[in-house]
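hey can u run this one w/ cytidine-5'-monophosphate bound, need the C-alpha cells asap thx
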Amino acid sequence: MESSVGIETVSLAYKKIILGVTGGIAAYKAAELCRLLTKAGADVRVVMTAAAQQFVTPLTFQALSGKPVLTSLWDATSGDGMEHIHLSRDADLLLVAPASADFLAKLAHGRADDLLSTLCLARTCALAVAPAMNREMWAAAPTQRNLEQLRTDGVQLLGPAAGEQACGETGLGRMLEPADILAALPGVLGTCPLAGKRILITAGPTFEAVDPVRGLTNRSSGKMGYAIAQAAAEAGAEVCLVSGPTCLAAPTGVRRIDVQSAAEMHDAVLRELPCDAFIAVAAVADYRVDAAASQKIKKTAGSLTLNLVANPDILADVAALPNAPFCVGFAAETERLAEHAEAKRLKKKLPLLVGNLAQDTLGLDTAELVLFDDQGQHPLPRADKLAQARHLIRHLATLLN
Ligand code: C5P
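ok here u go:
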C-alpha cells in the first residue's frame, strides 16, 4: 500500500498570521508562502516594508491573502491610528519572511521606525523570522551578533538554507523554501506533535581506529541525522543526538554527544535510554580492527592483513530490549531498495524503516526516501533533507500517538 506524506498535512485552520515581508529578492517567494498559508487555512494579513515594495507590489499579496496590504504606520484610514497594537494583539504569529539583514539588525536593537518593526516590538504573540541574504552578509560578525540577541529574545529562526544565491554566489543565506517554512509552523505555534517525548538519534559515520593515524569509516555527512534532530526539536521533543565525527553544528535545542567508534556509540546510546523513540540514522561501521596498533604501522611489507571483528548492532540491541522504545532504522541500499529495506525491517523487528538509494543521497542536501511500516510503503519524492526530516517526524508522531 502506498501513500505520500505531504505539506497538505499541515493545518493552520483558524490561525491568525501576520506575514511581514522585507526588502530582498526572496520577497517573490513570500508570495508563494502567502498562498500556502492561506491554503493551509490561516487567516493571513500581510505587512510590507518600503524596501519590500521595490521587489513585489502590495497588489500581489492583496490578491493572494484576500485583504488589503498594510504598508505604513501613518495610515489615515485607520480609526485611532493604533493599527500596530490592534493587529498584533489579534495574531497567533508574526512571521517575517524574508527577513533581511537590515531588518534583523533593527529587530535586535528594538527599533520601531516603520509599521512592521513597530508591530514586532508591540506584539504579544510569537515571532518567527526566515532570514534571506548574501552568504557574506549572513556570516558577518554583526549579523551573527544580532542573531544571538534575537535567540535570547525568544525569536524563532527558520533557516536560512544553503545553496545558489540570487547574486550568483553559493552558500548559507537563502530563504528556506516556502513549503519548509510552512512545515515548521506547527512547532513555532506550539502545536507540537512530539511535546513531552524524549527522542534519541544516532547520526554521522563511526571511525574505527587501525592505528593512531589511520582508521576505517563509512561515507556519511551526518546531514540527514542532524536534519531529523532539528525536526524533532521543532516538533517539541527533548532530543539527544549521539554523533560520529561530522563537520556539522548541533541544531538549536539539541543535546549532542560526540563519539568516534561504534563501541562508543553503542555505550552512549545505552546510557541515554530510556526514550520514547530511537532513530538510528548513523552509518555504523560493521567491523572494527580486532586489536588497533598503539603505534603507527610502518610500510615494511608488500601487503598487510587486518583482522576485523564485528561491531555491535546498536539498533538491533535497542530494539531487542524488553522495554524497547519505538525504533526507526535507516537502510541505504544500492539496488532493490524495497526488497532489502523490508527484509532489514523484519530482521531487526522495527515498526518503521526509512530506505534510500545510497548513490542518490550520499553527501547531497536533498534525498528521495521511502518509509516502510506495517501499513506498507510511503514514498517521499526528492526534497531538501530538512523537509524530508519533517515529513518523517510527522509520520513518526502519528505512529507514536
Ligand atoms: O548497516 P545496516 O544496513 O544494517 O543499518 C541499518 C540500520 O541499523 C541503520 O539505521 C543503522 O543506523 C543501524 N545500525 C546500527 N548499528 C550497527 C549497524 C547498523 O545501529 N552496527
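The chain is about 35% helix and 25% strand. anyway lmk if its weird
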